[in-house]
Amino acid sequence: MESARAARSISFSALRCRAIALVASTLTLALTVALALAGGADAQVLDCLGGQRAGQVAELMFGRNIGRRLGVNEADWSRFVDREIISRFPSGLTMFNAAGEWRDGASNKIMREPSKVVQIVLPGEADDTARLNEVVAAYKQRFKQQSVVMIVRPACVSF
Q1: Which fold has domain 53-157?
Q2: Which residues of the chain have pLDDT under 50?
């Protein structure tokens, strides 16, 4: 009788340890996922070499058609860059022409349009994202656009 009670006692103790281990590993996994999701690009650790420093690069993609025709010509684009982008990011940027493609939700057709891509090494200020959002909003309003693609990613930078 004593040996049966001891065996039952050991198995309950073992079950309790397994349950505690399972809860602990579940909590660790949940915490890891939460930190990864909450941290965003700032949480990524970069090992920059050769005198570079960790920073962020923004890439903005602007479609130039309004409806089915070119609506943002080179003069319009230059004025927009001067008034809206350079005024917010005076240290500089890189821009180039691109060929954009996207699927129109209403017709389910692939649409093509000339585009501009702007890359900005962000200065690392608290309002960087707010200023990017202002640029996007200004373009959408001024040129009647549905969207502007904005990508912000960590990068190693040097000048």
Answers
A1: Alpha-Beta Plaits (3.30.70)
A2: 3-43
